[in-house]
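Appendix C. Worked example: DUF6699 domain-containing protein
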Amino acid sequence: MFKTKHDIGSPNYNLNTPKIPPKALPQSPPLMPPRSFSRAEHRSFTMLKPSLSSSTSRAHTPKPSTPQPLKSILKGKTSPPRDSYESDGEVTAAKKGSRNSVYTVPNSLPQHAHLGPMKGPALNLHWKLLPYHPNRSKRFLHFDVAFPTHDIEFRQNSSYGVQRTSLSDADLDKSAADEKLVKMTINFQRGPFEWDIDVKRDKGIRVRDVFEAIYAAFDVPLTPHEKGLIPHHRRAAYEEAFRLRCKLAPGLPIVEQRQGWKRVDMLLHETLFRGLTQPKSGGDWVLNLSGSVPVSTR
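Step 2, the predicted output written as structure tokens:
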């Protein structure tokens, strides 16, 4: 209808139709010289702009075939597949690296570091405290634990008989070990009885301290519990050892008899000191007693 009213060649043309002057199109800005893209702009542009040719070429690009596992010389075994860039050395290094990343042990200890012993250090006791040995012991020591320590003496055979020499204070004040020892535990077991002897001295244990602790440990009256451990058939033997000790005591026999049975009476006649031994290095010491004199001293 618009064409019938405003077109000049149309029979329905309207003469009063205003003429609209043609408008000029806006001029395009002058062409600028091409600007070079930066690396970041070029990367974002290529990532955002779809490329049909690249997708098409990617779709038609043949996928590389997976390398087949290598056949092993041994029957029934195949080598595990791995990437082509991994050599045998690289695979081995990767396995070792993953294992060592969990826990590693240094080849050597740090400077000034040492592994301490789990138990106490082994000590060398003075020869007076060790069992008698002709090549080690300078003299034979006679110590009867049934009597006080002032009766301890050296004994030596000679053409004139047995020579007896009392221990001097210098002999008794010798250090008990080659290193300072402030505490030691001595175990003793005989029949149903088992006693521990503790020796302590802050300034260092001496030979005297060990002998006095042993004598004091056996110079103790039996408790009712310990008396109950005595077998009935052994009571006569213990009574005989008790009366003999009271008779040989330095004091009045009646005084010793009033104190009753003591631990030393449970030893019967095996009251001679035969040295200390240490079954385990750094452990407790063991007291050895007997009733016979070594053959070499007779």
